[in-house]
Amino acid sequence: MSDQHKAALAEGRTEGRVVREYLEAIRSSRGKPGRKRTPESVALRLKTIESEIAGASPVRELELVQERLDLQHELGNMESKVDPKTVEAKFTEVAAAYSARKGISYAAWRAVGVEPTVLKKAGIGRGV
To answer: Does the residue 87 lie in any domain?
Structure first.
């Protein structure tokens, strides 16, 4: 394998990683239907669970333990959520080349939630 080929593979991996991180940030920033949870509301529910476990039946204790684990995981995800704006600059640098190499259209980017202003910054037009 030539050095040029190795460099192209490395560039492709880098572009893919940047695109994946941006799309994951978009997905995680979208809200879910219903009332929004905050770290404070999750912490409050965790505190309530701790007090309920003491007098719970074995089956209810099992359910509460699982809810506690789910909430702890959710709280960890809340704290590590990436804002799309923080990875947008890198995305706009690589998106046009990635699109050309992978044959991805403007419409496909829009369908997964990439805003038109971001696509314009990246140099991806409607005709692409």
So the answer is: yes
Give domain status of residue 32, yes or no: yes
pLDDT by residue, tens only, the chain of 128 residues: 888 888 888 889 999 999 998 898 888 766 666 677 788 899 999 999 999 999 999 999 999 999 999 999 888 877 666 666 778 989 999 999 999 999 999 999 999 989 999 999 999 998 75
Q: Is 127 among the domain residues?
A: no
pTM: 0.60
Q: Which domain holds residue 88?
A: 3-122
Count of domains observed in the chain: 1
- Of 47, 46, 51, nearest to 69 by C-alpha is 46
How many Cβ atoms sit within 10 Å of the Cβ of residue 119? 21
In a domain, 128, yes or no: no
List, as own/partner pairs, every contact residues 23-28 make where C-beta atoms lie below 8 angstroms and the sequence separation is at least 24, other chains included: 23/112, 23/113, 23/114, 24/82, 25/82, 25/83, 25/84, 25/86, 25/87, 26/84, 26/112, 26/113, 26/114, 27/113, 28/77, 28/81, 28/82
